[in-house]
Amino acid sequence: MSASPARLVVLVSGSGTNLQALLDACGESGYGAEVVAVGADRDGIEGLARAGRAGVPTFVQRVSDFDSRAAWDEELARVVEGHRPDLVVLAGFMKLVGEAFLAAHGGRTVNTHPALSPSFPGMHGPADALAYGVKVTGCTLFVVDAGVDTGAIVAQTAVAVSDDDTEATLHERIKGAERVMLVDAVGRMAREGFIVDGRRVRFGRTADPQ
Ligand code: GAR
Prior knowledge:
35% of the residues lie in helices and 24% in strands. The protein is an alpha/beta fold.
């Protein structure tokens, strides 16, 4: 990525607290990134309102407005491309992107997941961790591939599970850690670049680990 701020397109489906953390970080000098657009798969969510308040352009692509999931995916890829992203950040985006999206944006799309991959992939990371009875869970930032939360791992943070946790309390604690992880890792990706070497992700622009 270049010396000018990296262009981030952020996709959301809900409250957008991770998006907000990125918006706040991008407002700090030297962070090295700017959110150029926020997209969603549904209307009326706080994530879109947060973007609006920050003066960031938004777009909505509903699966139900398309004849097929593939058509939705192609249009999503096209609209995102129109914003010329250096990095696409899925921040609570509750849809899997497909072939067309990965063909256009694979390798520069990251997703944040509320569990320590490879444990508990899917839509219910905190609930699944609680049901399994793990004592430590957390969050993972990964480079999106064709699987469900299977991509190469950029960053992880561990979070302890308390005996009296509910899904809601655990998820809130994870989200606190997730926002810090996301801001830190996306900032480093923007400022330092990153290399995906098989399953290993390194910050920096050279192939050799320093
Ligand atoms: C985050 O915990 C994110 O990891 C999760 O949704 C939450 C969104 O919170 N994403 C997934 O579970 C995707 N599998 P936010 O809208 O407040 O940023």
